[in-house]
Amino acid sequence: MEILLKVTLPLITAIVLWFLKAAKERSTIGLAIFAEINAICEIAEERAYLKGLKEQAEELRGRGEGDDTAQSVQVKIPDHYCRVYLNNLDAIGKLDADEAELVVRFYQFIDSVVQDITEGGVLTEGVTNVESFDEAITIFEKALKAADQLREVRVGKAAQPWYKKLMRMVA
Predict the structure, then answer these.
(1) Residue 16 pLDDT exceeds 80
(2) CA-CA 20 to 30 A from 3: which of 21, 73, 81, 136?
């Protein structure tokens, strides 16, 4: 019996510590990525990027007959705007599946918009068709919606009782 205790106690302790370490890592990665998504959304809102795209689209819609004036928009966005996400791509699988899906959706949508509005993008060259702006607006709104959905999921999980959080950690 004494030998069994000497073997099982360290084994159980190691397993519990491993679960706790994995849960802390998952929580930390999730918080960091969530913070980055929130910061990106807040910056975009503060700088009125979506509003600017909509205004440019309206200007194209309001052109007179035969007016081929092109509209363009260019925003300087650093390559490292999503460094937390990029540095944790290998850890996305540690997030809960519903969170991981929304994180990936957000970054795919926002990357598409960034490609359109940074140097060399379709909207930086000047376009005469409003559809290009409408597509960027729709994709931008989908990114913001994914961020809102992620926020709702995380708030819902934070409000869960401790035993449900424990079950998520084990599952």
Answers:
(1) no
(2) 21
Q: Which residues of 83-98 are buried (b: 16+ CB within 10 A; e: fewer)?
A: ebbeebeebbebbbee
pLDDT digits (tens, 9 = 90+) for 123-168: 999 898 899 999 999 999 999 999 999 999 999 887 867 667 666 6
Q: What average pLDDT does the chain have?
A: 88
Predicted TM-score (pTM) of the model is 0.83
Total tally of structural domains belonging to the chain:
1
Question: Do the beta carbons of residue 103 and residue 62 sit within 8 Å?
Answer: no
The amino acid occupying position 82 is C
* DSSP β-bridge partners for residue 127: 71
